[in-house]
Amino acid sequence: MKxxxxxxxxxxxxIPVVTGACAFAxxxxxxxxHVDLAKLTNPxxxxxxxxxxxxxxxxxxxPPSSLTYNQIPANxxxxxxxxxxxxxxxxxxxxxxxxxxxLFVDVMTHNATQGASTIQEQLxxxxxxxxxxxxxxxxxxxxxxxxxxxxxxxxxILAMYLDxxxxxxxxxxxxxxxxxxxxxxxxxxxxxxxxDEAALLAGLPQAPTAYDPLMHPKAALTxxxxxxxxxxxxxxxxxxxxxxxxxxxxxxxxxxxxxxxWNTHPLFTNVLFDYAARNGITAQQLVQGGLKIYxxxxxxxxxxxxxxFWSQNYNGDFPGPTTxxxxxxxxxxxxxxxxxILGAAxxxxxxxxxxxxxRIFSNSSPxxxxxxxxxxxxxxxxxNWTPTSxxxxxxxxxxxxxIPQNWEGPNGPKKVTLQYGLEESQNIAxxxxxxxxxxxxxxxxxxxxxxxxxxxDRQQLGVAIxxxxxxxxxxxxxxxxxxxxxxxxxxxxxxxxKITNQDGQIVFQPHLAVKNIMSPSTATTLTxxxxxxxxxGTGTSAQVPGWGxxxxxxxxxxxxxxxxxxxxxxxxxxDGYTPNxxxxxxxxxxxxxxxxxxxxxxxxxxxxxxxxxxDITRLAEAGNPPEQFPQGPFPASQGLATSALTVKNPIxxxxxxxxxASNGVNLTWTVNPTNASSFxxxxxxxxxxxxxxxxxxxxxxxxxxxxxxxxxxxxSTNQNSYLDQSIQPGVTYQYQVQALGSNGRPLGNPVSxxxxxPGGQPSVSGASQNSVxxxxxxxxxxxxxxxxxxxxTSGNTGNSAGxxxxxxxxxxxxxxxxxxxxxxxxxxxGQSTRxxxxxxxxxSTSN
Length: 847
Known about the structure:
The protein has four domains: 1-30; 33-45 and 60-247, Penicillin binding protein transpeptidase fold (Orthogonal Bundle), CATH 1.10.3810; 367-620, DD-peptidase/beta-lactamase superfamily (Beta-lactamase, 3-Layer(aba) Sandwich); 658-801 and 816-843, Immunoglobulins (Immunoglobulin-like), CATH 2.60.40.10. It is 30% helix and 21% strand. Strand 16 (651-659) and strand 17 (664-671) form a beta hairpin. The chain is elongated and about 110 Å long.
C-alpha cells in the first residue's frame, strides 16, 4: 500500500479521535473558567489620576453612563455586526471546530492572530483580559466569550460591547464617541446619528488611531466606505443607501466634553499620555482600564506651568514671532531629591493638539546650558581647577579650523577666571577648558550625568558649547542639573510612581536608577558658580525675589558664533534650580528655518527662557517662605586675569553730610553698572570722643566711655540717597549701605561711613569701605578733632599721596579766623577735601 494512502487512512481514523479529545478537554476548561459578572454589568470605570500627595488630581474619561440596546441606533448596531462579526446573530455560542482550527493555526505559526475575535470574545478581552498575543490568553478569551453567551442574550452582549469598546480620541463607548466626533448625545437623541456617521464609528474598533478621522481623515474615509459596503453585502442597507452615504463628506470634528481631562488639564494630560506610551502603556489602556495612576505631580507647580504656557503671552515672557507662527516651547520642573516631575508642559496653547508633539521629549542642541555639565563640572570635580583658575579667552584655532567666538566679539577679555567664564558664558574659555581637562574626561562626566552622546560628539570640542549630533531634551536637562541641587546624587526622572488595575494589582512601577554623579563639594561649588550666573551674569532675568536661584542660559544660532551673516537663533534654554526644584525651559520652532527663527533683539531668547523660569517659580512658590542655598554666590568677578579676585561692588563714593533744612544726616552714593534694584541702610551708634583721634587705615572710630552698638536696619530705598532724621546730638553714627538684587540677596559688599553730630552740628569723623578679595585702591579712616576759632566759610581741596604720621597743621585759604589743627595717621592715595565753618570737619572716603 502506498505511503500517502496509509497516511490518509491514519488521518481519517485519528483526527476525529483527537478532535473529540480536544473538544472534551476544552469543555472541561470551559466549566472551570470563572466570569465575574459584576465587572461586566458595571459601567466603564474612569481612570483616576493621583497627585504626588495621594490626592485625586483628575479623572480620565467621562462619568460612567450606559446605553440600553434600544438606545443605540439600529444603523450603528448593524454596522458593528457587519464589520466585526457578521455571523453574530446566526452563529453558535460554542463552535468547537472553529475554535480548534484557530488554535491549531496559532500554535503552528507561534502567534495568536488567526481570524478576528468575535464580539463576545472582544467584550471578554476588554473586561477581563488584555491584548496579550499568547495562546493561553487566546484560549481564555475564547472561553470567557463562550461563558458570556450562557448568561446574557446577544442583544445584551452587543449593548455591553458598544458601551465599553475604545473608539479613539480617548472615547470609550459609542455614547462618548458620538459626542466626541459629532456632538450627538445618543441617550437623548439616538436618531441624530446619520448612516455615514454610524459607519465611521463602526470602522474604529480594529484600529482606533490609524482610522482616527481627526488625525487621519483619508484613512478614516476609506474605512468608513468599507463598512458601508459590508452593510450592503450582508443586507442591512441597499446599494443606493450605501452609495449616497459614501458621497457624504467626512465632517467629524473634536467636541469638548465637560469634566474630561483633555478639557480640564490639557497640557498635563498630553504629557501623561506621552510618558505612559514611552513606558509601554497605551492610550486605550489609560482610558478603558479603570486604572489608578499614582503620579509625582504637584498641583501648585503644574498650575503655575499651565498658567504661563496656556496664556497668550504671560507677562511678555515669550519672544514675538518673526512670522505669523508663534514660537513653541516646553517646561519641566522636578523634585531634586526624588526625581519626580512636579509640573510640565509640552507646548503652548496656540500650538496645542491632543496627543500632539510633546516637546519635553523633543531633542535640540542645548547651547551653552551644557557648559556646567560638559566642562565646568568635571573641571571642579578633578580637583585641579578652582573658581579663580585662569582660562585663555583669546580667539584661537582649536584645530581643524574650529574657531569659536564670544558673544562680545573680539574685544572681550583675553584672560578670565573660571568663574567669569561661566558667569558671562565665554565660549572660547569654555572650549579651552574642555581641551585642557581632556575631551574624554568631559564627555565621560556628561554621559554619566545622563547626556546621550554619539561617537561623533565625543570626538569634537564643539560639544563644549552644545554642538551635538542629536541634542538633548528638557527632561534630560532637568535630570542632568538635578545632582547640582542634590549633593551630587541623581535620581531618575519620572512622572508615574505606579499604576494599579481594578483588582489592585500593580501593572506598572518604574525601577528608579540612583547614581552618584559628583562629590557634594563639586555640587556646592557649581551651585555657587551658577548663582553668580543669575545674580551677575547672563541669567539675571531668572531672579526670584527672596529665593536662591542658580542656573545657566543657552542660545543656539544658525551661524557658528556671532560672526556669521545672520543673527538668527534656532532655539534657547534656561536650565536652573532653587533649593526646592529643578527646572528646564526650552523655546524654539519645530522646524527652524529662515522663515521660522528667533532673533537676538530685543532680548537674547535665553533671557526669555529665564523669565519663564522666574515666573513659573514665583507662581509655584507663592505663599511659601523664601529659601536660599546654604552657601551664597561667589563675589562677582571682574573677569580679567590681572584682577581676577577683584570685587565688582555696586556702591562707591558713600558720603555723609548734614542737611540743615531737614535737620538730618544725608547719605549719598554712586551706583556702578550692576543689577542692584534696592539698597538696605543699617546704623550703629557710639558716644562721640572728646579727645584727639587717630586713624591707621582700619575701620575704627575713637570713642570715649561707650562702645559701638550692633548695627540695625533703619530703612531701604531704590534711590542712591537716604535721609536719616532720627538722630541725637553728640552721637557718632556708623552707616552701612548694602546693595540688593531683585531677589533680595546682597550684591557685592557693604560700604560704610561714620558721621558725628556734636552739639547739634555735624562733624564727620571718617568714612570707610569694606571690600573682599584683592581690591584696588586703599581704605582710609580718619578721626580727629580740629581746634581753633573760625568765622565765615573756608574750603581747601588738595591732592595728597604718601604716608603721614604725626600732627599736621593746615592753614586753609578762604574767609577764616582762627587756627585749624588735625591729627591724622593714614596711608592714602587720592583726594582730600576739608571744609570748615567755625569748626573744621575732615571727610574722606576711599574706593
